[in-house]
Amino acid sequence: MxxxxxxxxxxxxxxxxxxxxxxxxxxxxxxPGRVLxxxxxxxxxxxxxxKARQFFLFNDILVYGNIVIQKKKYNKQHIxxxxxVTIDSIQDEGDLRNGWLIKxxxxxxxxxxxxxxxxxxxxxxxNKCVSDLLSxxxxxxxxxxxAVWVPDSEASVCMRCQKAKFTPVNRRHHCRxxxxxxxxxxxxxxxxxxxQSSKPVRIxxxxxxxxxxxxxxxxxxxxxxxxSQSPKSSLNDVSDDDDDEDSSD
Length: 249
Prior knowledge:
Elements: H1 2-5, H2 9-22, E1 36-45, E2 50-58, E3 61-69, E4 73-81, E5 86-90, E6 99-103, E7 108-112, H3 116-137, E8 173-174, E9 181-182, E10 190-191, E11 201-202, H4 205-212, H5 216-219, H6 223-226
Antiparallel strand pairs: 1-2, 1-7, 2-3, 3-4, 5-6, 6-7, 8-9, 10-11
């Protein structure tokens, strides 16, 4: 089906509409062989709170952006190569239901669909696209992924020292290795994580010690296992206050 749609006028027109919705700030999306599989609004768990984002699934990439005008205009486009993607289901908890993790070496995050059926369809389509890509390229699935950031609302005190309380003055930071919310004194060091940035990034003291001694696997937070166990209320090279979209994330 994908091969049949690849060079069809209908597919070309649909992709062109998506490009136009992102405007001049978005990257061109039309290339030979690319097919738009589906689209829809998912709730992305951002640093500050869950936010609606428009997602587009192609046969080789996943694209998402902020909704400016529904079905007409989006900004802050993000493009994720599907070859690097793995996904894991998340257990329902409270108001956050029908979710799964999207994990890549550079960035990982949680999204939630409106219904269980929608979640199943998204996950099945993503897995099929990834499987087809890896089959064609002969590559193996990525076994390295960035940590999913713990939302700010889940930590009133530093998750490492368990002492420092967060206030407007004592700001929250995120360790780029484990994704924990930590205070400034517990995350003063930086370490080069090539999959996330070309420059050293902020990490917590715990992860720094493990990375420095070569015990990297112990440092990697298994968020797919621990994510659903943490209380819920609500990388590219990013600044301490930013997620991937804006300073409010």
